Amino acid sequence: MDAHPGLLLNDAAFARVPEQNKPVFIYDWLRSLDRRLSQSTKTEVRDVQQALTDQLMVQVTQGVGPPSRKLLGRCLAKIFTTGDSISLYAVLNSCNDVLKARDDSPTVMNKRLTALTCLGVIYRSLGRLCGRSFEETVGILTKMIKQVESQTRCEILITLMNIVTGLGAAETACFRDIFKVARSFINDRVLAVRLAAVQCLNSLTQYHPHFFTSDLDAVMSMCIKGLDGSNHDVRMEIAKLLGFVLAKTQLDSGISVAIGNGNSITSNASTGGVSSNQNLAGGRSKPTTLDDIFTLLSSAFLRGPSRFHKGSSSVSREVRAGITYVYLEFLTHLGSDWLVAHSYTMLSHCLSLLTSPRTTSTPSEAAFTRLCLGGYLLPRLLRRHFSEAAQVAVARHLLVLLSLRMRKRTNQPLQGQSQLRGLGKGLRPVSSAEQLGEQTTGSPSGSGSGGGSEDGSGGAGTSGSSGGSSCGGADDPNYLICCLNVLTEVIRSVAWVLRALLVAYAHNLLAPILSSPSNLVDTLFDACLCNTSLGVRVAAAAVLRQLAVALPSQRVPLMDRCMSVLSSAASADSISGHSLALGGLVAGSRLGELGIPSAKGKAVSGSLSISNCFQVFSLAEDLLRAANQNSRLTMARTQAGWYLLGACMALGPTAVRPHLPRLILLWRNAFPRSTRELEAEKQRGDAFTWQKYLLLIKVIGIFKVVRSACK
């Protein structure tokens, strides 16, 4: 022992250590041993292998604490990797004997957990070197798992996962037993057990996907049950499991991916980084198409655990968030080339989930669905897998979806349909361009694959039909809000990448969405800023604000157009929308390097060249003075006026000081002039009074901004 003090345990020193410090001494020795075994030669390990193995097995039979268990298993595995493997089976048998103990005392439980951890690490590290001894271990674990507490159950599942990972693609009947055991605990009430079960199933998918692809409906139901009441870690693991399995059905070399226009493209398994596997579908009579996958996912997103049962039970947020992660994993495995080629199909299917009454029954559900799709899934996919040119093509797809949605609302033909053919050519695959042309012209062949319906509601309609109409009403704003939010993210992403390049190049790249037929500005002004939904108007104003940040040359023309409409608008929605857009353009000028020019040729009233801030301030003052001329427009004009004044405050003290006397006069007229008038307003108590007082709170906020800016 003294000849190799760095490997063997010093029994004399260990005996002198106080009892309460012995676990720490063992931990330090194991950590040192783990490091030295990696640096030792085969001869050095062989010389002390038997004595070292005996010392380590003493620790296994006595049981060690959680920090030392993995170190103990790793040291045993390194001994047999570096030295001889003669005594490997004796070590495995000793660990199996520890597991067979029926006693449930804390001491025996500690020994059992230590043996489980060591077995898992050994099988994972040595794999098939362990021979067929794993069959006995799996038999013991599958019988014991139903009779133990949650902590031991969790360690058993982790050990089974390590066994599968170590053995790889070896064919044995034990894997079927492991699959059944892990599947039965995927909805366990203890989330740690649930997580371990999903990780075990994930290890099976890497080498034995036929367990899952033979019955996708059962796998989907199993995963949905696991998502219900789950935490973030469980959701991410289930997303990896389900996303890999679904992508595997599409990426196998012998299966064609069917797209919405009836074409079929044979996918290459190397596109998404998933290895090919023969006879993937198992007992399925026909290959799984993209329509089938989208139908499964949309049904799970819309109906959750009740997808196979009648009823209107609500879907938990955990399930919808988990299915959103599944979408991301599935589309990520398909690869960037596939996503660029089928961007229209992907966009229309994802956005169609917002047209179901199940996702928009309450404002909170609608907001959460928009956050899942427009705030997480689509922006993440675009940033990860789309180049700048591909993102601009996606923006054009979004504009076409908006136009189709508004055309359905107004029942008017879409202008410039023939000019949309060949859209997006120059990207890598152009099948999405052909799809877009067929979609826009209303071709019957473009009504499949979850994204082919004329109104962009494909895919979710079939799965959500039991809950009502396949797509919500044309006036439902959630679809438009999500489209506009994604459009804002696309413009922001492209502008951020191109910030270091020439502005002219950025203008040329974004020019396709500004020119006819997919004119972004016309679509926003004609259809979105006048929408009856405040959310749509705010989202459209955000798009214009971000467009002006990306292309500073567009800021002044957009401001001119907003001010021209506001000076003659006769609709409350139009006044609200265009004031939001103008306020965003003015306040957003601080984010750009050029800002707002101090003078320009065109003035709203036709006078000489005057300052931009003076025009906006004068327009706000006119709106406030004309508020009482029409009772129907009083609130809209008042809100628009104060909103524009607040936007002017964002320009800083230089722009505010010249107008301070007029601003103080407007403040004075906004508040009640006497105590008697104040009491009269308080006694009214109707909705108009509450709106007025909420508006006064905003006015006070503007006053605080001005006071801090003009000090």
List the helices and strands and how they pair.
Layout: H1 11-16, H2 22-39, H3 42-47, H4 49-62, H5 66-82, H6 88-99, H7 106-126, H8 133-144, H9 150-167, H10 174-184, H11 191-207, H12 210-213, H13 216-227, H14 232-251, E1 256-258, E2 264-266, H15 290-303, H16 317-334, H17 336-341, H18 343-352, H19 363-385, H20 388-410, H21 431-440, H22 460-463, H23 477-497, H24 503-510, H25 520-528, H26 534-550, H27 555-568, H28 572-587, H29 612-625, H30 634-649, H31 653-656, H32 660-670, H33 675-684, H34 687-709
Antiparallel strand pairs: 1-2
Biased composition (Gly residues): 445-468
Biased composition (Polar residues): 432-441
GO biological process, one term: retrograde transport, endosome to Golgi
Could you characterize what this model shows?
Strand 1 and strand 2 form a beta hairpin. The protein has a two-stranded antiparallel sheet with strand order 1-2. It contains 34 helices and two strands. It is elongated. It is an all-alpha fold. It has helices at 11-16, 22-39, 42-47, 49-62, 66-82, 88-99, 106-126, 133-144, 150-167, 174-184, 191-207, 210-213, 216-227, 232-251, 290-303, 317-334, 336-341, 343-352, 363-385, 388-410, 431-440, 460-463, 477-497, 503-510, 520-528, 534-550, 555-568, 572-587, 612-625, 634-649, 653-656, 660-670, 675-684, 687-709; strands at residues 256-258, 264-266. The termini are far apart. The chain is 65% helix and 1% strand. Residues 253-284, 412-456, 461-474 and 599-610 have low confidence and may be disordered. Helix 4 packs antiparallel against helix 5, helix 5 packs parallel to helix 7 (106-126) and helix 18 crosses helix 20 (388-410). Among the domains are: 1-130; 335-409 and 476-550, no CATH class.
